[in-house]
Design brief:
CATH architecture: 3-Layer(aba) Sandwich
Largest sheet: 4 strands, parallel
Helix content: 40-55%
CATH superfamily: Response regulator
CATH topology: Rossmann fold
Mean pLDDT: 79
CATH class: Alpha Beta
Radius of gyration: 14 Å
Distance between the termini: 38 Å
Structural class: alpha/beta
Strand content: 15-25%
Oligomer: single chain
Shape: globular
Number of strands: 4
């Protein structure tokens, strides 16, 4: 694919959040334009890791707090070829989550 063609292609996005409703709202918002294409969704970190390897998204929008690991822990386990990451830091004051984040 030519560089010019790639520049006009929508960014391939993976959404990772344990709340299905939140993923749906973000997907709906991103799908309104031609800039983004949501290629996958995951609810937990293990799914996110697997999907980044199979889908090779351009951008990952991921929650910090998930059932199996934090978003930061998941990101650290990815193959380093994943080009971009956006951690969604919307979580309530939870000392366990803060401790997990600072331990990473």
């Amino acid at each position: 694919m030519q560089a010019q063609e790639r520049a006009t292609d929508p960014l391939q996005v993976l959404l990772v959040n344990y709340q299905e409703m939140f993923r749906g709202l973000v997907k709906e918002t991103l799908s309104k334009g031609l800039t983004f294409n949501v290629v996958g969704e995951a609810a937990i970190g293990a799914e996110a890791i697997a999907l980044t390897e199979t889908l090779s998204p351009d951008v990952v929008i991921m929650d910090v707090q998930m059932d199996d690991m934090t978003g930061i822990e998941a990101a650290l386990r990815w193959d380093r070829s994943t080009p971009a990451l956006l951690i969604n830091m919307l979580f309530y004051d939870d000392s366990l989550t803060r401790r997990k984040i600072t331990d990473v």
